[in-house]
Amino acid sequence: MRELIAGRHSKAALQMAKDLHKRVSTADSEALLVDAYRARIEDLTRLRLTIEAKALLAIMRERFPAAVSGWADLEQELCVLDGRLDGIVGPLMNPDLTAEERERIESFIRQHVDDLPALAAVSSLPPEHSLRLAASALASAFQAVTAGNLDDELLALPQVSRRSPLAPWKALVRAVACYYRHEDAECRKWLLTIPEDAVPARLIPAMTAMLGTKTEVRFTAAETALIEAAGDHGAALRSSVATIEAAFAARKRQPILDGVRAIAAASIGLDPSLRERLRQHIAVRCVAQHIERRAVDSALGGPPRLNAYFYRLLARSIELMGYAESSAEAVLVWEEFRRAAIRDEWFEAGGLEDGVLSLHMAEMVARLPADVVEEMEDGETFLSNFGKGRRNSGLPSAGHLFDRACRADASAESFDAWLCWARKQKNGRAADEVAERWREARPGEIQPLLHLMESAEKRNALKKSLNYLEEAERLDGLNPAVRRGKARLLLSSAVRHLRQGQTHLIPAENEQLLTVSEVRPGDVAALAAALHWCCAAIDKNHSAREDWETKLVRSIGPVAAHLVTSALARAAQWRSHLSVPPLDARHTPRTELVTGAVRACLLGDWVGLSVPLLFGWTGELIEALNQPAMSVDASGLLALGEAALNDSARELAYSVSSAGMSLGTANARFLYLRARAFPAWMEIRREGCLAAARELARRERDTELTGRILDRLSGRLRLSAKAEALSAEVVDAIVAEEMKLRKYPTVPRDDQPRYAAQLTSAAASRCDCPKCRAKYGEAIEDWDDADEEDSWDDDQDDFDDPALQEMPTVLAEILEAFPPADRERVLEAIEAGEDPIQVLDRIDQAVRKMAPGSASRQSRWKPLKAADSKPRKQAIPAPDQPPTQGRLF
Questions:
Q1: pLDDT tens for each residue of 107-161
Q2: Residue 549, Cα to own-chain centre: how many angstroms?
Q3: Which is the most buried residue in 60, 187, 249, 578, by most CB within 10 A?
């Protein structure tokens, strides 16, 4: 922490000092905390963040008054920033002021006071005081010389003595006057007389650069603006730069090349290294405008140097174009930059910089559509203009880049990004290998253990999963994810024993389950009671069954008890003679239906138990959700909606989104829920909800939801992930109309929502004319009139064919015959823009499952009917894969 404070990393030092003092609370930790607070206040003061600095100072006065008593200098600096100088200079009127105190005040004025008009107007000194007179004269003289008034009488400044704390300002005024008189030698002499600790010394580096002296100082934005505005030695160059900028904006080839020649001529007197960088910038701008390299090299007077600096410029320029194709080309250029940077000794292969760069490249490749990656194998790239087009064997894979990034920088951020990518790959073993690498590289972190535990659980390797759980508990037993994983793992083991009829093993698992800390009171006890009820039902112990049923209903209510036991029954593959507790939905209050379903779904989500929601009383639940007043919060409704989607109850999920949006909170998540609940043919409304949800999530800084939406928009037929943000008016229109459309669409119709026109106009706001395409940085090609001719055969362009019009209905009937899990997978593939051939393959696989010789549709699990309907016996085979825990989707 001392090193952080010394290195001016005060924010991190302060947080660490707080945590340390909270744990140990000793005199040494308190002293360290006080030092961290002082360093943070000093940094905030340096950044002129006075409000934050004052807040921290007030905290220190309250908690550590003894330590703050010696911080008068900090309080004075804050007064200077606020323009309150009366208290600082007021003691100068005291005739009994000691020489040491006077020297301290004058040194403070010299080092910190930069507002001369405020000093000239202080009320604590009389108007005739020498300090006020000197400040007033200097303020007037400084304003005059910067405006071009170089009168010698004005520059005399007799009011400012050599011993005055404002004497450095007098030297600065005369240096500025000499600069405007082009008396560079005299200007440098006056700058040398300014003490290094004086306020005017802050301008010395900028003025030295304006005089043409080379300096290694990195200028701030204000200093750069001053140099550009006040320096007049590069007037011809600036004029040429302005001319070529106008040519670039107009995208006119010949004016651009003429401007390049003018800049090449005007920059001959510049420093060679600076001139070379200017040539590289111009070359990259021309490449982005698709001007052939030979013409650019000729205008520049020779090709630019193809070093690491050039490739970095080129990579950033291509990447900022914002298209999938340009991102792929940017990855190739970044790879060339890496080679050049290692060759130029910018960084070492396998170093931290290499890791950061490789991670950036990996994330770019991971976002690319598959067809773009294939196109990069044969298409021309920007590197082709520089003889690098076929040097490499295609685009580097995301897995290779993630591996290289983690070898160079084994940070949690790098491994987390790699693991997120690996989870989306078809090879399920890839994610486990990444987690194992993460575990070996960073043994003290819990995230890889959680993934390995979940992965082993899915493979029914419960013993291995328990080993991972024990290791995770040793690292952080209080972590909510660990507690949730333990509950989920214990439940999975219990369900397997129920499936095998080994009810004698359940009590021991229930005892362990009851030791898990609860998220909501009563959840763990209710789950344990449900498991006891299942054991009694399997053992045909009717009295125990009734007792546990009574306890379960008393704990979470009849609706939640019915749903939880139904979920356990489906997970345990019960046969029809083992029925769950009945529920009379018709005589159950509507509010109780909703709250009970929400309670069950929250519990199921916590332990990874898929709750069935397609019952005979699902209609009553939908009606209850449409009631105006409900005592259910947004998180509960979201859990209900996700469970409905998992069970293919799209109409229920749609009603949940309506109820959620009526709350006025979390509209982004409810719009995202509604977009996934739409039928496959509801394109416009789905895209409208996704676009509005994405924009709302961005405004709320919800990066997790934004990532999920962008993943869903990655299909080629969906909105571009780089699309411009919707305006607030369009988003409000989408939300307002979707709140009114509470009825689930069941039949394909031609009418569109009212916001469709606004959504279309927003998407079409990027005009395709040459001027607008030029403004967006797109290449302009000369189209021939023949290219505009329609290549469609009129006989083939017959979309009014009745057979085509009936396709949505026929396809819907086919999908309705599928089991819920297969139907959901096909619909998700269609919505994600998957290749139609692959979608047909999915349909074919689902049909083969239903063919003779395989499990029939009637043999699959069907949700239980309401209590008023007669239950039918039916076989229940193995359930579908349990929902994946901790994944984005």
A1: 888 888 888 888 888 888 888 888 888 888 888 888 888 887 778 888 888 888 8
A2: 46
A3: 187
Distance CA 409, CA 418 (A): 12
Q: How far is residue 450's CA from residue 458's CA, in Å, rounded to a whole number? A: 12
DSSP code of residue 217: P
Burial bucket for residue 365 (CB in 10 Å: 0-12, 13-18, 19+): buried
For residues 559 and 731, give the distance between their C-alpha atoms in angstroms, rounded to a whole number.
37
Nearest alpha carbon to residue 153 among 140, 167, 172: 140
Token pair, residue 595, equals: 């709250």
14, 1 Cβ separation under 8 angstroms: no
Which of the 8 DSSP states describes residue 574? -
Residue type, 516: V
With DSSP H G I counted as helix, E B as strand and the rest as coil, what are the percentages for the chain, rounded to 5? 65, 0, 35
- Cβ atoms within 10 Å of 13's Cβ, excluding its own: 25
DSSP secondary structure string, 50-63? HHHHHHHHHHHHHH
CA 870/CA 579 separation, integer angstroms:
12
Q: What is the CA radius of gyration of the chain?
A: 36
Site of tokens 């998957």: 834
- Give 713's Cβ-side CA count (13 Å radius): 23
**Residue 826: partners with Cβ closer than 8 Å, 6 or more residues away:** 815, 818, 839, 842, 843, 846
Tokens at residue 753, please?
A: 């929502």
Which residue matches tokens 């078809």? 426
Please state the pTM of the whole predicted model. 0.55
Q: What is the DSSP letter of 881?
A: P
